[in-house]
Design goal:
The protein is α/β, with parallel strands linked by helices. About 40% of the residues lie in helices and about 15% in strands. The chain has two domains: about 25-270, Type I PLP-dependent aspartate aminotransferase-like (Major domain) (Aspartate Aminotransferase, domain 2, 3-Layer(aba) Sandwich); about 275-385, Aspartate Aminotransferase, domain 1 (Alpha-Beta Complex). The protein has helices at about 25-35, 45-60, 70-85, 125-130, 140-150, 175-185, 205-210, 235-240, 260-270, 275-300, 325, 330-345, 365-380, and strands at about 10, 65-70, 90-95, 110, 115, 120, 135, 155-160, 190-195, 215-220, 230-235, 305-310, 310-315, 345-350, 355-360. Strand 12 and strand 13 (about 310-315) form a beta hairpin. It is globular. It starts with 9 loop residues before the first strand and ends in a 5-residue tail after the last helix.
Length: about 375
């Protein structure tokens, strides 16, 4: 990636995870060029929209029908609406440190420890907008059980990042996701997986395929648009039939299923479905993880590294990171110093300490070697500042 002054960077932001093939992949560019000469928007479904939908349905175990929107925010907002319509309940449970877009009811935070009724986490969001949102600690199944026992007939659904990627990268504990599935079934609530980030990144079928868990509704975005604006939500036919025009849940968008985005998405999904794609990408990511760990050790810097596939979380702390509280123990000043040092050396990490590093198929072994050289310099610079 090059900036306006001509400086070159190895990009580990990858459009916040959307560019799994890297920037300007030839097949994606060709698909968009071929599409744009036929028009940019029609106000009607196209063959490409159906083709992309079929690719998603074939890959994601829980999806029988899918509806396209324009962003991950729209996808999660719409999924909550379906859950409420299905259950005739109002309340939604989310988790600390999980980000589901900037719709009012989800833009909230909770106190550490026990779950609390959430308060707005942004100016312009009213208390009324978040009054039906409950926040629990991520990876804490006992707290979820207590909440449902206290509100057995009030919670429409749980929405969760099955692998949390917005407090750094935090994988689920063993049986956490399975526990959420069992609780929601017991209490008649819906389980919503926000796989906007992890869909087609964690695996071809997302996190749910890795853990063999079927949520009721899945939210997608990023990779399914190949770098163009896109979002989608889908699930079993019984839930998706609730969406207009077949049901009472209204959702619409002028550019939903846009032909440029669907063309880029089709080209991208065809590439990631090729044999060995994810295995090769995970090996590259593991080399980066191991090299960073070694560089930190040599510089006596406390670091915790969480990796799943091509996603990597780096935390400057000496305790394992399993939830939002432990993620917040990471030394953000150290991260800032490392970020700035590596940026000066031509390596672009996520600018926030609580974002995730993403790799793409475009990253080469030479890129990894240069990155690790830069990391060694950065870690020597911060010295014993680690936590």
């Amino acid at each position: 990636m090059w900036d306006e002054d001509g400086n070159a960077y190895i990009d580990y932001v990858c459009s916040w995870g959307a560019l799994i093939l890297g920037s300007a992949h030839p097949k994606v560019v060709a698909a968009v060029r071929a599409s744009v000469i036929r028009g940019t928007s029609y106000g009607a479904p196209t063959r490409r929209e159906i083709e992309l939908a079929n690719l998603i349905i074939d890959a994601v175990p829980s999806i029988e029908k899918v509806r396209f929107v324009n962003s991950g925010t729209e996808a999660t907002m719409s999924a909550l609406r379906v859950a409420r319509a299905c259950t005739k309940r109002d309340r939604i449970l989310k988790f600390e440190g999980c980000y589901h877009g900037h719709s009012d009811s989800l833009l909230v935070k909770g106190g550490s420890g026990m779950a609390t009724v959430a308060t707005p986490d942004s100016a312009g969001v009213t208390k009324g907008a978040t009054s039906d949102t409950i926040v629990a600690p991520y990876n804490d199944l006992d707290s979820v059980k207590r909440i449902f026992e206290e509100h057995p007939d009030e919670i429409a659904g749980i929405i969760v990042e099955p692998i949390a990627a917005n407090m750094g990268l935090v994988p689920p504990k063993p049986n956490f996701l399975q526990g959420l599935r069992e609780i929601t079934k017991r209490f008649g609530s819906l389980l919503i997986f926000d796989e906007v980030i992890t869909g087609f990144r964690a695996s071809i079928g997302g996190v749910q395929k890795i853990y063999d868990i079927q949520p009721d509704i899945t939210c997608l975005g990023k990779i399914i648009g190949g770098g163009l604006p896109v979002g989608a939500y889908g699930g079993a036919d019984e839930f998706m039939q609730l969406v207009a025009p077949t049901g009472p849940v209204y959702q619409a968008g002028t550019l939903s299923g846009n032909p440029l985005a669907t063309s880029a998405g089709i080209a991208t999904l065809r590439e990631v479905k090729k044999h060995g794609f994810y295995e090769k990408l995970e090996k590259t990511s593991a080399r980066l993880r191991d090299g960073i760990a070694e560089a930190a050790k040599e510089a006596h810097v406390n670091v915790q590294l969480n990796q799943v596939g091509s996603m990597l979380g780096i935390f400057f702390t000496n305790e394992p990171v399993i939830d939002y509280t432990s993620a917040k123990s990471s030394n953000t000043e150290t991260y800032t110093a490392v970020f700035n040092s590596m940026l000066e050396q031509g390596v672009y990490l996520p600018p926030s300490a609580f974002e995730t590093i993403f790799l793409s198929a475009a990253h080469t072994q030479r890129d990894i070697a240069k990155t690790l050289t830069a990391a060694a310099v950065a870690f020597r610079h911060v010295g014993g500042r680690g936590s």
